[in-house]
Every structure is written in structure tokens, then in C-alpha cells.
Write a structure and sequence with these properties.
Elements lengths: L8 H18 L23 E9 L10 H6 L2 E11 L11 E9 L2 H16 L5 E3 L8 E10 L2 E12 L2 E10 L5 H17 L1
Antiparallel strand pairs: 1-2, 2-3, 3-7, 4-5, 5-6, 6-7
Length: 200
């Protein structure tokens, strides 16, 4: 009578080794480039009236949430950079973002980046007035919040999107008029920065 599950011990060990080798080879290699080289550029923004408010500059672990900085450093942060853009347009009638800050942070490995992103997600959700919003299938996982406010009597909106690409954690912070600023606009920019990173 044939025994069920009858792989001999030698064949079973060979099969297990082959499976492990296949898993190891399919794991994506960490991205090694300087985060400054992955950030959105002026010519990638949706309208020609943007200017660079603050050029690309290195930032520390608390670039998005100072309270998470110590934990994020322990997650294996290597370096990070951000750039700020601005549009000089009438706020009350504006469409799209008025201010936009793009950042990217590089971690030693993807699991460290995933842990850091989880910390940032929780910190963003805990902010006063934060409303979590869906980001769809953004890169290796995304998270976003919206925060409503007023500016000179006009309803304003801040959108913050965080997402991961391998061992990189990215963020976009956009501010604009409520009704003129939409999440789809920011997700499109996140997709563009992701493409910068995928190209290496």
C-alpha cells in the first residue's frame, strides 16, 4: 500500500531548498539611491504656475511627525529629503494645491520602511480633525488623511498621503481650497514620484 505524503527525506530537503532559493531570488533589491534624486520636480507638477519655495534639502526622522522620530530612526532610517512648492494664486478661487511638500526617506530594508510607515499612519490618524481616506492601489501600500480648516474665512483642506516603495517611505502634504483640492490630484503626483523611484 502506498504511503500518503511519501516524499523521502532527501527529496523533501531538496525541494525545500529549491523553494527557499526561489523566494530569495524573487525578493526585490533595496533601492540605494539618494532620496533627493527621487523627489518630484517642477516640470512634473500639474500646472506651470508652481515655483520652488524651498529647494531639495535633507531632513531628519521627524520630517512628517516629530513625535515618531526616535522610533523611525530605530526602524533603520538611512537618509531623507524633501522639497516644497508654492503657487501664487488667489486662494478663494483656486483649484488644485497651493502648497505642496514632497518627501522621501530611505531605510536599510523594506521591513523597516513598512514599520516606519505603520507608525506614521497611526500618528496621522491621531491628529486632531484627521479623516482617513482611501488611496487605492498606491505602490506597496498607501495611507492618507484629510484635515479641514479655514484661511481668511475660506474653507481650506490639507491632504497628507504616505506610501511605500520597497525600502522608501514617501509623503506628500498638499494644502488648498476645500472644493478646489482633490485627493485624485495628489495621488497622481504620488504615482509620478513612485515612477521616479521605480526607474532608479
Amino acid at each position: 500500500m502506498r504511503r500518503r505524503g511519501g516524499l523521502g527525506p532527501g527529496l523533501a530537503m531538496m525541494l525545500a531548498a529549491a523553494l527557499l532559493a526561489g523566494c530569495a531570488s524573487s525578493a526585490p533589491a533595496p533601492l540605494r539611491g539618494n532620496p533627493a534624486g527621487y523627489l518630484l520636480t517642477l516640470d512634473q507638477l500639474p500646472s506651470p504656475d508652481f515655483t520652488v519655495y524651498l529647494g531639495v534639502t535633507p531632513v531628519e526622522a521627524g520630517w512628517l511627525d516629530p513625535g515618531s522620530s526616535s522610533a523611525i530612526e530605530k526602524d533603520g532610517l538611512v537618509d531623507a529629503a524633501e522639497v516644497e512648492f508654492y503657487r501664487q494664486v488667489p486662494f478663494a478661487t483656486s483649484n488644485g494645491p497651493i502648497t505642496l511638500t514632497a518627501a522621501a526617506a530611505r531605510f536599510t530594508i523594506s521591513t523597516g520602511a513598512a514599520a516606519a510607515m505603520s507608525r506614521l499612519d497611526a500618528a496621522l490618524d491621531a491628529r486632531s480633525g484627521a479623516v482617513p481616506v482611501a488611496t487605492g492601489s498606491l505602490a506597496d501600500g498607501g495611507h492618507a488623511i484629510s484635515v479641514a480648516g479655514t484661511l481668511d474665512g475660506v474653507q481650506a483642506l490639507q491632504l497628507i498621503v504616505v506610501w511605500r516603495v520597497e525600502n522608501l517611505v514617501n509623503s506628500l502634504v498638499a494644502e488648498g481650497r476645500s472644493g478646489g483640492l482633490a485627493l485624485d490630484q495628489i495621488l497622481s503626483l504620488a504615482t509620478t514620484q513612485t515612477a521616479n523611484e521605480r526607474k532608479g
